[in-house]
């Protein structure tokens, strides 16, 4: 209570003191002291009982809020009124405080009106909804039309904070016209208020969106687009600043920065499904803004925009690449704060409308990430570089393993071996271990481990060997015990022979952690190696710091299995089993992917073979149709020749005929029977060998006397060709056609010789 009385007395002194009679330094001192005691009193009101507030604060407050008092006294009265309104019932506030509130809202000083306007929010929450509509809302409307810009701005902020207390009718008929007039007036003539308006714009639109018509909704959206381009001119798709005075240009840049801050809220206001048609160009303009502060604010809220877009996230892929490749490290630093979340959302929610959304891939993402890292590495801001490398640990969930292997791994090795900043080197080592942990190809993993051993564990520089021990500490946390012991433990213990004392010193500090990775009795030989390493250090070490450290480490090793609680050991074993299962699962996934790729390759080969066979079948059917037509022509010609031979044989019936048939005639007749129309269908209906032979000998008996010299090899070959499979018949169609033409020529020659003999 002493503090309250002291505060009130000091305030009384501040209120009653005629400042015009005091010197400037003393007046300034009294103002500072009075404001400090005022803040103390306002903080103490929350803990005071109602009676104390009524007697000690409200009683003098009534007199000190009069117009005859000084401006600081009236300003203090405004703040006290706003604070005590929440302590009393609505009836007390309405009866005792509202008259003072009305008086101060109509004060002659704009500072008092502005201060009281900002306290109307607390007054409204103290008197309830009904009295707010009847008392507070008319005061706000009047203050929103005040001649002072600070008063109008205070009224605008208060209206936004009280939107949930107004019903739909008040929002439509009172608030919307008032806010619309305020926005238009600020945009045309009051640039000072535009900064606050743009900062509160997202909250304003969401508070009124439920009462908007389509026309009102469109008006607020278009006004926001105007604010985003304030002070810019667009030429050839680029945003350039117009030549304004420096002060005005800074105000416009602040407005655009506030618009970038409110952009996620405006995406929700405009509906994410309409983002491409309504807000994409505005967002692109903010991401390409000439002011660094605007681009930085857009980068800070980029992850929120990606969340809201969902399956339409591919709309902003270009803007993501633009911000990653920005010339300013401030923009990159702002984007890095939520880069992991942004990249995962941008690459995992691609199943939406559009052909490119099915592919979970951001074009030019990998080159942009590489460029960003090189830019951070070339600057003097190593913390940004460290932060970027830390965010790169999410890349196994974002890009493919081959891209990481060919584009990022070598860069990590270069940073570890050549960078001069220790935190950056350690973060690069951690990122390298993460890349190794989630690589799915056994060959690549083995090559990475071999490179770690060659360039770090066996490196020429002791600095690289120290980084190998740092990498081992990280690998113990990331990998299972069996994996670490298999690939890293022996190489770490071999550094006991390192010629540099700093390496041996660090190895001594790591011995307890290395011992924790050994599982008995399976790794008994590794335990023997570690004990041999400790004995070697104890016997041969000459550096006093290393000797002291190894002696201390030996004591820790002896106490490890005794002092550690069972539940901690059990939790660590369960975690190690989980890591080992994950590593086994990665190997199984690698094997499954390999089998699937091989099966896919075999299927593609089988499909290609079928396609070639189908093409060959089509060309064979075309050849068969041509051979069938040729066979028809040759058969008609053969019939005419046989009729002529029969006529000649009847006229020469007196000459004796030889009962045996020569091989050449057999060949000729078989060829003729093969060229009959029925043979053209032999690929579909097989011909019986007995029928073929009977047909051959019946035809040959009528012309046996006209056969030329014998041929012994043609008969068996022709029978095999006519009784073969349909595939062979198709493949040899062109050859059969040539043989038929040759037999016709031989036959005509034989008739010529016979006629010459006759």
UniProtKB/TrEMBL annotation:
The HEAT repeat ranges on this chain: 97-134, 136-173
Region described as Disordered: 598-686, 699-758
Gene Ontology MF term list: protein phosphatase regulator activity
This protein's UniProt keywords: Signal
Cleavable signal peptide: 1-22
GO cellular component, one term: cytosol
Regions of compositional bias (Low complexity) in chain numbering: 616-638, 701-714
UniProt cross-references to InterPro entries, sorted A to Z: ARM-like (IPR011989), ARM-type_fold (IPR016024), HEAT_type_2 (IPR021133), PPP4R4 (IPR039918)
Residues annotated as transmembrane: none
Biased composition (Polar residues): 655-665, 740-758
Biased composition (Basic and acidic residues): 598-615, 727-739
Domain of life per record: Eukaryota
PANTHER family noted in UniProt: PROTEIN PHOSPHATASE 4 REGULATORY SUBUNIT 4 PPP4R4, SERINE_THREONINE-PROTEIN PHOSPHATASE 4 REGULATORY SUBUNIT 4
Protein name: Protein phosphatase 4 regulatory subunit 4
